[in-house]
Specification:
alpha+beta, five-stranded mixed β-barrel, two-stranded antiparallel ribbon, elongated
């Protein structure tokens, strides 16, 4: 799964992933290739249509935002065969010459074999018809979205998962908006019986601002909130962006209102509040010139250990957030969000380390801040 800017630039001009990677590893860039004559490009196994696009011919390159959206939606796999060992090409479903359409809806990720079928004819019919291709693209993108949602959901069910914080009011609002019958959730009846939630299912701090998890029966409330969060995740399409904190990637992948899952080192600092019932905390996660910000009330932490240890200082954990807005400030991207929940880290949902050697090896995308992580 490439995020290298050189490879993406070549993909945008119709080159397949394997050749793009080989050229990049050999030291080629788009500008260097554009300075070569046709014979030199042919010697590098570049075909004539791609050579024309390298020279900025009739078809402009696919915009990076559209390219990234369709690649991520398809997990960099052919939407027909989904074979991970094959190089892929971003193909125009309705030909560019006829449609002049670079929109993601008109783009499909195909391996080189099925890309050939999309252009070849047997008799009077195209081997891989537009109808068949559209159906395969839609089915695969739906399956990818389901797999991503399922992976995040299942990670919340493992025994080693510990939730340190819930945004009780916002989760209640999202669950109600999704039509969830909160009174049927495990833990609700017991939490209600012990006075830990209202009849409609909302959980609130008492008049002194004290955590409801101080009660001996708090395990019922914890179970209820875990179930509520699970229902919210099942009714949305959360995106795990833990490995995708890139300035060149995120603006194409997320927008206001999206639910995102962010794992890594978070930093917590206290905010002075005039209301003694609040223990406000400013949190941020920074990597690769992307900053994620949110504020929450530490009193809603699920245990004394969470409030005294895990929601303080610098901690490696995961936050489930709803994006409010995205801004660009100088060379950085700022994501402002509302936190829905905070939990312990899960090894299977983050693999990338934002370190300088990634960029130097050519596997990185953009500029890496070694001081951040």
């Amino acid at each position: 799964m490439t995020k290298n800017p050189t490879e993406l630039a070549l993909l945008a001009r119709g080159m397949d992933t394997r050749l793009a990677q080989a050229l990049r590893l050999a030291g080629w860039t788009l500008s260097k290739l554009q300075q070569c004559d046709v014979a030199a490009l042919e010697a590098l196994s570049i075909d004539q249509p791609t050579i024309a696009r390298l020279y900025k011919g009739n078809r402009p390159p696919i915009p990076s935002e559209a390219l990234l959206q369709v690649l991520f939606a398809s997990r960099w796999l052919c939407c027909v065969c989904r074979e991970a060992t094959r190089p892929v090409v971003v193909h125009h479903i309705q030909p560019w010459a006829k449609s002049r359409d670079h929109a993601p809806a008109n783009l499909a990720v195909l391996c080189t074999l099925h890309h050939g079928e999309a252009h070849n004819q047997r008799g009077l019919e195209v081997t891989l018809s537009v109808e068949r291709l559209l159906a395969a693209k839609l089915a695969w993108e739906r399956q990818v979205a389901h797999m991503d949602r399922l992976a995040i959901h299942q990670s919340t069910q493992v025994q080693a998962c510990h939730w340190w914080y819930f945004n009780h009011l916002r989760l209640f609002e999202l669950a109600r908006a999704s039509g969830v019958d909160l009174q049927r959730l495990p833990g609700f009846a017991e939490a209600r019986q012990h006075g830990l939630c209202a009849a409609i299912g909302v959980v609130e701090l008492d008049e002194r601002g004290r955590s409801p998890y101080n009660a001996r029966s708090a395990h019922h409330l914890y179970q209820y909130m875990v179930q509520m969060l699970s229902c919210v995740l099942e009714h949305t399409v959360p995106q795990n962006i833990s490995d995708d904190l890139d300035r060149g990637t995120l603006p194409a992948l997320i927008t206001s209102g999206d639910i995102i899952y962010v794992q890594g080192r978070h930093f917590f600092s206290n905010i002075n509040s005039p209301d003694p019932r609040e223990d406000l905390v400013r949190a941020h996660r920074s990597a690769n010139k992307v900053d994620i910000h949110f504020v929450f009330n530490r009193h809603e932490g699920t245990s004394g250990s969470a409030r005294a240890l895990w929601l303080c200082g610098a901690q490696t954990l995961c936050s489930v957030l709803q994006v409010n807005r995205i801004e660009r400030a100088d060379t950085r991207y700022q994501i402002y969000a509302t936190v829905l929940a905070i939990r312990s880290a899960h090894g299977e949902l983050k693999s990338r380390l934002y370190e300088g050697n990634l960029l130097r090896s050519g596997l990185g995308f953009g500029t890496v801040d070694e001081s951040e992580e």
